[in-house]
Amino acid sequence: MNRMFLVFAFLAFAINLPAQKFSAEKTYIKFFSDATIEDIAAENTKASSIFNQETGDVVFSVPIKEFEFDKSLMKEHFNEKYMESEQYPKATFQGKISGYQTSTSGEQKATAAGKLTIHGVTQDVQIPGTMENIKGAWKMKAKFMVKLVDYKIKIPQLLWKNIAEEVEVTVEFNYKSL
Amino acid sequence: MKKFFTVSLLFVSFGVFAQDDLMKELEKGQKPEINYVGQTFKGTRIINGQSVESKGKGELEFIFAHRFDKINTGSYNAWGFDGFAVVRLGLEYGITDRLGVSIGRNFNTANKMVDAYVRYKVARQSTGAKSFPVTITAIGTVTYQAFPNAADATANSLALPSTADRMAYVVEVPIARKFSSKFSAQVTPIFVHRNAVNKSFENNDDYAVAVAARYKISRSVSLVGEYCDRLNANSSSPFYNSAGFGFDIETGGHVFQLIFTNSLGLNPNTIVTQTDGNINKGDIRFGFNITRTFQLTKRK
Questions:
Q1: Of chain B's two ends, which shows fewer C-beta atoms within 10 Å, N or C?
Q2: What is the overall mean pLDDT for chain A?
Q3: What's the CA gap between B117 and B55, in Å, rounded?
Q4: Could you give the CA distance from residue A169 to residue A151 in angstroms, rounded to a whole number?
Q5: Percent of chain B with pLDDT over 90
């Protein structure tokens, strides 16, 4: 029994530890809110991520203050009123990507499942996207909707309804081997 | 079966640990950042006085400031709404996130004041890789009093002032700290130089210190208060220290500031040196500042 346990423990380590890890060298996150008064879009290129191609484990960290808008005031309101970024400076994702083959080149469909934390609220999510293996490096793309109410992001009553209750998030990450 | 269960449990737990470890690895690899503290106050004005806030790059702020007559003038005067009021319309433009320029004009028959100022955010409160406790802004203002012209001078039997005599200069250095997302406080050393004064009760050079604070009572509404102490007021000065309190209400691109104050002036030199309301007698005026911000050039 003891020996069996050790073998399995070793196996578990062996599978998890010496795996092939990739870190994101180029990241791009965009969100888009389509509302009656004005469309609001913001881009962020300051996110970071590590991806383990053997296990599919992946983590993201997105600094909220680095979302850039067309208007200074939008950025101010986004940080102060919606995301409360002094209190919740980062959005994170911790999960596993499945459905891809490391040996296949070209674009393939994959799904990321895990915990998405925005505005201090964690939700279990499933995000469909694509993975592309380009000469040993990875390109990851996904597009999904985020409901503000799921993350307790409130729209101030005094603001006119110029932000949609659901925003579209586009993610494009390029990884290279660590 | 038991073995299988133990092993499965191991795999599962290691899987979760792997993600946590990965997150730790990610955080370790991140460079320490500088987090600048923003939105110390809602607008460029706290009540009468300037705040440390500057406009963002490419932003144009239109400010409409209005002070009515004293509330204690009573019902016949509609609690000040009937009486002599002053209006200042101003524009401030952000050349960079830290440097701004402004022009403005007072609309009233008593001084017809024209003003211009330059604002520069010298230091920003920050945490993280570089920590600094306060935000410091420097503001230099020049004002020109257009009243009286030759006809008005004759009609009021006044000497016609020279151009130099119409000028005044003000330097303000607001220093503010945002203590929490709700509470901010500011102290402002102020220097005023007026070229022409009545020496029997006024000084050419005045020094003052203003203190101010704001407390956010909701995400869009704040309470603000301000007091300006004249350090070398002339002993025969008929004027008072300026004080005020009010509410800031923010709605998208607009900020509405509803104000109660004993000052009538809308320029730093008149606010500091010519506040005519005696608070002890209840000489309070109602007023407001309304600002609208336009983004002229895209940030990206």
A1: N
A2: 85
A3: 13
A4: 14
A5: 72
Quick check: helix, strand or coil at residue B246?
strand
Q: Tell me the pLDDT band of A8, cut-offs 50, 70 and 90.
A: low
Residue B290: name the closest of B253, B241, B240, B264 by CA.
Answer: B253
The shortest C-alpha distance from B256 to chain A (Å) reads 12
DSSP 8-state secondary structure symbol assigned to residue B236: T
Report field, pTM of the whole predicted structure over 0.80: yes
Domain hosting residue B46, numbered range: 34-295
- Please check whether residue A33 is in contact with residue A164, taking contact to mean a CB–CB distance below 8 angstroms: yes
- DSSP state, residue B28: H
Residue B212's nearest CA partner among B249, B168, B261, B251 is B261
Instruction: Spell out which residues of chain B touch residue A161, defining contact as CB-CB under 8 Å.
Output: none
Structure tokens at B80: 């000040």
Q: Which residues, in sequence order, are CB contacts of B272 under 8 Å at separation 6+?
A: B170, B190, B192, B206, B208, B228, B230, B242
A-chain residues near B17 (CB < 8 A): 16
The single-letter code of the amino acid at B260 is F
Q: Tell whether B17 is covered by a domain.
A: no
Residue written as tokens 């083959």?
A101
Ordered alpha helix ranges (H), chain A: 2-16, 72-77
Residue A139's closest CA among A170, A164, A176, A97? A176
User: Element (H or E) spanning B52, and its range?
Assistant: none
Q: ipTM strictly over 0.85?
A: no
The two tokens of residue B230 are 């004249």
Candidate from A9, A50, A72 with C-beta closest to B57: A72
Contact at 8 Å (CB) between B235 and B199?
no
In CATH terms, the fold of domain A2-177 is Lipocalin (2.40.128)
Low-confidence winner among A70-74, B54-58, B71-75 (lowest mean pLDDT) = A70-74
Q: What is the CATH number of the domain that holds B115?
A: 2.40.160.40
Q: Does residue B21 belong to any structural domain of this protein? A: no
Structural contact between residues B191 and B183, judged by C-beta atoms closer than 8 angstroms:
no
Inform me whether the C-beta atom of residue A111 falls under 8 Å from chain B C-beta atoms. no
Picking from A4, A69, A95, the nearest residue to B299 by CB comes out as A69
- Name the strand (E) or helix (H) holding A88: none
- Neighbour tally for B65: CB within 10 Å: 22
pLDDT in the model for residue A18: 43
Q: Is B22 helix (H, G, I), strand (E, B) or coil?
A: helix
Supply the DSSP string of B73-115, one letter for each residue.
G-GGGGGGTSS--EEEEEEEEESSSSEEEEEEEEESTTT-EEE
Which of A8, A58, A81 lies nearest to residue B10, judging by beta carbons?
A8
